[in-house]
Amino acid sequence: MNDAGKVLEEMNARSREVFRRVVETYLATGDPVGSRTLTRNMSEKVSAATIRNVMQDLEYLGLLNSPHVSAGRIPTQEGLRMFVDGLLEVGDLNSTDRQMIDATLGSNSDDVGTALDRIGSALSGVTHGASLVLAPKHEAPIKHIEFVGLGHDRALVVLVFADGHVENRIFTPPPGQTPSSMREAANFLNALVEGKTLSGLQSVIAKEIESRRQEIDQLAQQLVESGLAIWEGESDNYERLIVRGRSNLLNPETEEEDLDRIRTLFDDLERKRDIAEFLELADEGEGVRIFIGSENKLFSLSGSSLVVSPYMNADRKIIGAVGVIGPTRLNYGRIVPIVDYTAQIVGKLIADRS
């Protein structure tokens, strides 16, 4: 039994009901919940004074707090965590939400990126939060690599995959590159590349560079390393992360302090900090996971919750994730089945296109 289950088991029925009703009312309204509100909804007739005493006990346990001296109570992060783990009732996906997500699948002629972008927009629209979709890396074997100079501080790497997919990526080459050094780097890579995916190529190239360091021009070696950074480094993760609906977290009633936190969240996303962690946190097991506030380092400054689920390819390998960011008072019971269904849809989409 987890800690939440233990604490809940030790509560009496009345305390458990007060706690559940405070959290459910707060999640529905966003407002502190007072004892008089609860007296109208309790399953047994009980006085407001009795409920206040129970709420004080729950506050002592760190599950509720009072934002103002005379106000009602709201759940703490610990309280929300215990509610999610021990009392949350997850509903079935309703037909309207299902239809909105299904409607995004479109035609099979769309490329995966376009389809995922549309699914992210739909997920944001359905949940009224910000959606995150971590797209899979293109893992087909590479057929050919070419470097093209675009100026003294810009170059293009062209990746041609065996399945016909082509990617063009701009990066900053080391100083002093010449057309001949770029050709030498491309020849070096193309001699190694046959039958290898991008992820499989990195370790091979690193070993080859080490063992044949004297065989290629130093500038070409730097160019190879620069090119690798663009494939396996931060910008690769950035290209894979699709964020939609951020404006849903910014509305006229949002407190200025909360606005600053939310802006910080999206600044973090724009700067690509810890994006790889998004997949790692989903990679720890199947199914939907809920991260509340500071439980997730990536979003700790936003005061937000993340509901995230990994999706798998046809080989049951986790290759990406979908999620929703919203305030900690998300309607978790509704959001969880939406995220779960969307992850299944994306997994099927990827498998069908493979």
Automatic annotation (TrEMBL):
Transmembrane segments: none annotated. Pfam families: HrcA. Belongs to the HrcA family. GO terms for biological process: negative regulation of DNA-templated transcription. One of its GO terms (molecular function) is DNA binding. Negative regulator of class I heat shock genes (grpE-dnaK-dnaJ and groELS operons). Prevents heat-shock induction of these operons. This is Heat-inducible transcription repressor HrcA. Residues 115-336 form the Heat-inducible transcription repressor HrcA C-terminal domain. InterPro entries: GAF-like_dom_sf, HrcA, HrcA_C, WH-like_DNA-bd_sf, WH_DNA-bd_sf, WHTH_transcript_rep_HrcA_IDD. The keyword Repressor applies. Keywords: Repressor, Stress response, Transcription, Transcription regulation.
